[in-house]
Amino acid sequence: MKKRSVDCDLFSELQQNGILNEKERLELFNIGCTPLPLCVRINQKSKYRDLLKTLFNNSCDEIKVIQNHEIFIWNNNKSVKKEIKKIIDNAVERNYCYRQELCSMFPPLVIESLINKYHINTVLDICAAPGSKTSQLVENNIFVTANDIDPKRVQILAHRLNCWGNINILNCSIDQIKGKYDCILCDAPCSGDGTLRKSSNPWFKWKLTTSFENHRIQLKIIRESLKRLNENGIIIYSTCSMNPIEDEAVVHSILKEFQGNIQLIDIHHIIPNGRNGVSVWKKYDTINCPVTCYPPIEDYNLERCVRILPQDYNSGGFFIAALRINRSISTASSDKDTMECFEKVNKDNTLWSQFKNEFELQPIENNILMKKDNSLYSWYNGNPIYQSVFCGCKLFERRRKDDYSLSSFRLCEDGLFMIHSLIKKRRVKLSLEYFLKLQYEPIPFSSFSMEIQNELMKWKEGSIIIEITQKNCILDSFYFIGWIGKTTLNHNVSKEEWKLIRLLLNEFHIQ
After folding, report:
1. Of 76, 97, 118, which residue sits at a domain end?
2. DSSP, residue by residue, 31-82
3. Do residues 134 and 157 lie in contact, with contact meaning Cβ atoms separated by under 8 Å?
4. CATH, residue 493
5. Are residues 288 and 188 in the same domain?
6. Residue at which a domain ends, from 97, 116, 148
7. Containing domain of residue 284, as a range?
8. What does the pLDDT read at residue 254?
9. Which tens digits make up the pLDDT trace of 275-317?
10. Active site (annotated) includes residue 240
11. Do 160 and 269 belong to one domain?
12. Which one of the listed residues 186, 240, 305, 393 is annotated catalytic?
């Protein structure tokens, strides 16, 4: 088995380009041989938010607060208690929290810091999958359009982000994207040499020719992105690469190509431990080297870029630059809404009226989308929608085809946090004891008190909200989705969520 070496090709290239000195090279080697810390962000709209925060507070090794984001850090996987690890794994799968490297949180943090100064209302995340950065943005109520060209990765995106109302998901190539945006997050494909703490590839398979190939792709992505920016719009360009061919050389080439129309924004105050970008690197004379990789002969203020080495934040390696266009550099016009899969619901929609009346839902028609096959109703925040393959967060989904009765649809857990407070009917309060019995079998109406029986019997078959009422219980006032049958009450809680509930009750010593 090969051993990692301080003399690997990547380290030599970084030192020759002035990224590392001899001391920093040794520091990079030492930290590169250690596992990454486990960093976790809690979904602030999750009903388990406070419980998870209490558990993580008591078990993590460190808590960082960056721009109102609490990040819980364990030094490595071995320092995570076994039961806490199970809770994290389960909560991540259910989108109640997110695993995310500290360095990859910085691009969204840069956008958040620039929102007010540059009037950012809409963001396009152009290479969004698997969605950790996107989820960070939507937590701040920014309307995000998330795109990925790979259909399988788009499915991952939809799973990660379907609990947010201010999201629009696309599946197309960059040159097919419509609409214009105030800000574009371009976390570009790269060689990933900054991932040396979790991957062996940077140590043994890193090749300069791969960086040249990536450089060409990255330039194409930024050029296409510029066409989709509003006037005075901003591009946040980032990679998990440390070498200048995929970093400063790309930024320099764009600044040179659009001379005077684009400026670099200094973001070092947002990432105080970040290093200055470099303005000098090797000029490669190989036949594979694009001329756009050549170092600048004029001053382009490349020191305003930020490079993060693993030893700077005990993370991976990363590069970030913020570019602002002074005026529109494209004649492309804004496109009209083109929702391929969804249409907006109006107040006369028969199905929606049925939901509204049965649940006594407060009027929210202006924020409801319907899938064109009537299989799904989603909440969204009213922004223009282009080419959507998934939008908003699911409220109701169809159980049976060709059936338009109330019982053919069910409430969705993903969107329940958006509307549970707006639902006035079809709610029942249960003790924790009764609720836990539901995980094993439906409970006959006759098992409940007369008051609860009367409530259940007056409603049609279909979804219901179950609210836990038990003082001094960690689940007091928690709400879940249930199902009213003809004579029984059942649950609509997934196996994974039941597992999380049991883990939490056990951790808080509740039987």
Report:
1. 97
2. HHTSPPPEEEEE-TT-TTHHHHHHHHHHH-SEEEEETTEEEEEESSGGGS-H
3. yes
4. 2.30.130
5. yes
6. 97
7. 101-323
8. 97
9. 999 999 999 988 889 999 999 999 999 999 999 999 999 999 9
10. yes
11. yes
12. 240
